[in-house]
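Example with several molecule types.
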Amino acid sequence: MSNTVLSVRGAGKFFPGVKALEDVDFDLERGEIHALLGENGAGKSTLIKVITGVHPRDAGKVLLEGQEIHPQHPGDAQGLGISTVYQEVNLVPTLSVAENLMLERQTRKFGLISWKKTEADAKAALETLGLDIDVNRPLGSYSVAIQQLVAIARAVALDAKMLILDEPTASLDGEEIQTLFRIMRELRDKGLGIVFVTHFLDQVYAVTDRITVLRNGRLVGTFVTKELAQIDLINHMLGRELAEVSAHRHLDEGSYDGPKRQIQIKNLGKKRVLEPVSLDLNAGEIVGLAGLLGSGRTELSELVFGTQRADSGLVFLDGEPVMLRSPRHAIRSGFGLCPEDRKQDGIVAELSVRENIVLALQGRRGWLRPIPRAEQQKFADDMIKALGIATPDSEKPVGQLSGGNQQKVILARWLVSKPILLILDEPTRGIDVGAHADIIKLIKELCDEGLALLVASSELEEIVAFADRVAVMRDREKVSELVGAEITQDKIIEAIAR
Amino acid sequence: MKINERFYPILATIAVLVLLYGYGIIEHRAFSDTYVLGALLTDNAFLIITAVGMTFVILSGGIDLSVGSMIAFIGVLMAELVAGFGMHPVTAALISLVVGAGFGAFMGVMIAKFDIQPFIITLAGMFFLRGMCFLINLDSVPIDHPFVSAFSGFKVPLPGRGWLTASALLMLATVIGGVIIAHYTRFGRNVYAIGGDRHSAELLGIPVHSTIIRVYTLSGFFSALSGVVFAFYTASAYPLAAVGVELDAIAAVVIGGTLLTGGMGFVLGTFFGGIIMGVIQTLIAFDGSLNSWWTKIMIGALLFGFIVLQRLITRSFSGMRAGTT
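Resulting C-alpha cells for the full complex:
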C-alpha cells in the first residue's frame, strides 16, 4: 500500500462569478502533519469543504487511499475515515462527555444502552489522548480546550484514516496549545495523516512537517517546513511578487486643513482577543492596519467601534474619553465601521438603497425623530451620484447590487452621518477590479475631507498605496508602526515576520 | 464528589415536592394518608401521561400545542366508536392510539421536512383537532360500556386508606416506559443531542429528520393515550374537554426540571412536576379559604423560579451556541 492517505488532483470549485478553487493538487501522507495556509479567501476552507463533502467539487479528483471518493455530506466523509474538527466545537454542550463521544455508537445489551460499558469505552478513548476527566459531567462545563480534545478523541475513535483540524488553536491558551500539539504528534506517530489549518505561523513551524500554501484559489506550492524560511512563507501567502505597484500617497498630498480632531487609542485590549494597543488617529490621515489573518486587525476595529467590549484601555476624542460600551455609543461619538463581513454585518439586504443609506443617521438621531422622506431621498440621490453607485433607482433592495456597490452603500451610510472616524475592515474584499479602484479613490477623497480613517487590509499593495501611517499587527499585538517613506511592502513583511 | 450539574434542576424539583408535601402533612393531618397520594396519582394521570410525551418534544427543542385538543378529540372519537359503531372500548382505544400517533407523525413530517416552527404546525394541529371534535359531536356524551365501568372501578389497595386506580397504574407504566426510551435507547439520546445543539447533532451523524418525526409521533401517541385514560376515567366525552392542558403539560415539564430550550432534563422530573402541580391544587382545596386560582399563581411563581435556575446553570457552560454573548 502506498504511503499516501489522501490525494487531491486538479480540484476546482466555482461559485457564481468566483473561482473559489482552481486546479489544486494536495497530498497527505500517512504519519505527517501538513499545514494548509493562505489568507482569507485563498481557498483553504473551500478545499476542506470539497474534501469533506460539504460542497460537491466541480472539477478534479479526490482519492482516499487510491480510491476515488464522492462524499455527499460530512457524515459520509466521516464514514470513509475523514474526520474533521472545527474551530467551533461541534459537539452538544448539554450532553455528558461520554455521550458526546459515543453518540450513535453506544454499546447496547438487549436493545437497551449499557451505560457502564459505554462510559468505560468513552474513558478508554480519552485515555489514548492522556485525558482523565469525569465523563459524566456535561461537556459544556469543561473549557473549550477540553471540548476540542473530546472532539478529536471522537474523531480518532471513529477509525479515522485522516484528521482535519480547522483552526483548532484559535480559542486556546499557550498551555492548552502545547497539550494539543503533544496529542497531534502522538497521533502522527501512530500513522495518522493530519491536515492542520491555522493562521499562526509560529505554530506551523512548531508542529508541522510540510506546508501547502494556497492563494486566490490556486496552489502556490507544497514545501517541507524545515526548508522554508518564514519570510519566504509570508511572501508566498501574500504573493507580493505578483503586483509591485507602489503608488505611494505622500503626506503632503493631503489637502485638508480644517479643525484637527484627534482620536487616541490608549492601551485598548481585551483578554484572549487583543493585547493592549495604542494608536493615534488624526483628521485627514489614513492609518493602515496590516497583518496576517488573525493578527488582531479585525479585533482592534471591533474594540474601537464597541462591537466587542474592551477590558482595558480607553479611546480619547480630542482628549475626552469616549464611552464604547456598544456600537450605539460609538456611533453617537461619531465613529463608523464598515465591517469585514459585508453581507452578515453590513448591509440589510432586503431594505432599499435609500433605507440602507439613512440607517446610521437615523440611528444617531434616535427613532423618535424620523428623517423626513424628502430629506432621505435627497441623501440617497446625492450619495448615489457622489459615489457612483450603480443602481437603477434608490428603491432597489441592496441585496441585488454587486459587492462593490454594496460597499459603496455602506460607505454612503456613514458619510451622511458625518463621522469623525471611519473604520474600514477589508474594504475591497470580494470586489471586482473596477470598483476596487473606485473604493480606493473614495478612501483618499474622504481623507481629504477631514475624516480620520483606520483601514484594515490584508492586501499590502493597497495599504502601501494609501496609508500615511501603518500599524503592523502580529499575534494579536501591535508590533510596529511605520510612517511615510518607511511604508513599503518589504518593511511590512519584515515586521510581520520578525 | 461534586454533584453533576445535570442533576441540579431535578434536585430542585424534588426539594420543592418534599417541601410542599411536608407542609401539607404538618398543616393537614389527612395529608399523610395514602388516600391523598392515590388521589393525586389518579387525578393527575392524564396530565402526566401527556407531559411525558411533551418531555420528549421539549427535550428535542420543540413544542407541541396540539395535545389538549388531541385529548378531547380522542374522547369524542372513542365515544363515537363505542356508542355509534358499537365497538369494544379496547378496540376503540387501539384505533385511537393509532390515529393519535399518525396525526403526531404527520405534524412531525411537516416540521422536519419543511423545516417549519413546531409552534406554528402544532398550533394549526390544535385548532384542527378542536374543530374536528365538533364535527363529530356537539355535546357532552356518556361512554356507557361494562368495560368502562370495570376500568373506573378497578382498584389496587395501598397500605392505609388509599388505593391505585387503573388510570394511575397506566400513568406509572407510561412514566417507566418514558424513562427507558429517554435514557436507554439511541433514539432517546439523539433527542437530547438534537435539543442540545441541532447543528452539531447533524454533523455528528444523527438522523435529525427521522428523530424529529418520531418525537412528534411519540407525543401524539402519548396524548392519545391520555385521551383514552381521560375518557375511561370520566366515562364521557366532551368537545371542550382538556382546554389548556397543553400549557399545563408544558408547565409540568418545566417544573420537572427540563430545559425549555431542549437538551437537558428527565422524564422522571416531569412525573414529579405533574405531582407538584397536583399537590398545590390539593393544598389549596384543603385550605378551603383560598380561591382555586391561587393554583395558577403558585404554578406561575414556580415556573419563574425554575426558568431562572435553568438559565443560571446553562450560562456557566462554555460553547453553548444559544445565548452566548
